[in-house]
Specification:
The protein is an alpha/beta fold. The protein has two domains: about 5-115 and about 300-325, Quinone Oxidoreductase, Chain A, domain 1, CATH 3.90.180.10; about 130-270, NAD(P)-binding Rossmann-like Domain (Rossmann fold, 3-Layer(aba) Sandwich). About 25% of the residues lie in helices and about 25% in strands. The strands form three sheets. Strands 3, 4, 5, 6, 7, 14 and 15 form a seven-stranded mixed sheet that branches. Strands 10-9-8-11-12-13 form a six-stranded parallel sheet, with helices on both faces. Strands 1-2 form a two-stranded antiparallel sheet. Strand 9 (about 175-180), helix 4 and strand 10 (about 195-200) form a beta-alpha-beta unit. The radius of gyration is 20 Å and the shape is globular. About 50% of the residues are buried.
Length: about 325
């Protein structure tokens, strides 16, 4: 066995601590596939795990990082062999199972997805859980029967990771995209991703009414709380909103009015334990439908030793788009 570099969250009498140190391969958790991690990414949940501002980590010590791309080193799983390129998102990795901010990971092969053709490991992590979740939202809207000819689509938290990919995907699918953001100076960035209109998030931050003027036929919300309540109140009859985040909070101060008076549907998105068929469909669609030029425009890259410095930034909403973490 050998050691490798990793970010490690520990908990002692003084609370949670984070350190970049050597980690012994013998201390990796059970799994039938060992992966040499080449890339990871930065998600909101990673920021929570590294700072301890929410009880995301439920086992100590813990290597944070909920996504990785890498190369199989050894495998007892029938579907994977050494040398295979793979991707992992979700399944409690970085929360209850040692995660991705390390040079090596051992996981269950059933959690992995083969790296989709047409994507490099870095591009797969530029997508990461955030982009994968955005695709699950689009798939839910498609399944509901939402179509671009029914009206505009709203994206909240549009300059964040989920929002940026959602704007690009919806625009590519032909939607008139309204991008909601509270960050000055992001209009050109969002229009470059395909947004047709920019909406100040202040318009969605006031006390929500049971119903308001109908403004959009569909939505992807990564914010929750009051913002989601206002989005629902402004959704057109028989429209649908896919909800996948809680950046503003876990509460939802709304009423039944949008649902029983307009027939609005609220579509919940769980990206952590998505069954394999839907998971693979989402990755296949991302490889086909996401404009890789726009993906590059929304992506920055950092080295593994530097990722912890961005934890507070993503929680404060000061990061833009997607951040790739180079591990290897």
């Amino acid at each position: 066995m050998s050691t490798f570099k990793a970010w490690v969250v520990d908990k002692g009498e003084g609370g949670q601590s984070l350190s970049f140190r050597d980690f012994d391969e013998a201390d990796l958790m059970d799994g039938d596939v060992t992966v040499r991690v080449t890339h990871s990414t930065l998600n909101y949940k990673d920021g929570l795990a590294m700072t301890g501002k929410s009880p995301v980590v439920r086992r100590f010590p813990m290597i944070p990082g909920i996504d990785f791309a890498g190369v199989v080193e050894s495998s007892g799983h029938p579907e994977y062999e050494p040398g295979d390129a793979v991707v992992l998102t979700g399944w409690g990795v970085g929360e209850t199972h040692l995660g991705a901010y390390a040079e090596r990971a051992r996981v269950k092969g059933d959690w992995l997805v083969p790296l989709p053709g047409g994507l490099s490991p870095a591009q797969a992590m530029a997508i990461g859980t955030a982009g994968y979740t955005a695709m699950l939202c689009l798939m839910a809207l498609d399944h509901h029967g939402a179509r671009p000819d029914q009206g505009p689509a709203i994206v909240t938290g549009a300059s964040g990771g989920v929002g940026s990919v959602a704007v690009a995907l919806l625009a590519r699918a032909g939607w008139h995209v309204i991008a909601s953001t509270g960050r000055d100076g992001e209009a050109d960035y969002l229009r470059g991703l395909g947004a047709a209109e920019i909406l100040d998030r202040a318009e969605l931050s006031g006390p929500p009414k049971p119903l308001a003027k109908e403004r959009w036929a569909a939505g992807i919300d990564a914010v929750g709380s009051t913002t989601l309540a206002n989005v629902l109140a402004m959704t057109r009859a028989d429209g649908a909103v896919a909800a996948c985040g809680l950046a503003q909070g876990m509460d939802l101060p709304t009423s039944v009015a949008p649902f029983i008076l307009r027939g609005v549907s609220l579509l919940g998105i769980n990206s952590v334990t998505t069954p394999q068929p839907k998971r693979r469909e989402a990755w296949a669609r991302l490889a086909r439908e996401l404009d890789l030029g726009k993906l590059a425009a929304m992506t920055t890259t950092v080295r593994l030793p530097d990722v912890a410095g961005l934890a507070e930034e993503i929680l404060a909403g000061r990061t833009r788009g997607r951040t790739v973490v180079e591990v290897g």
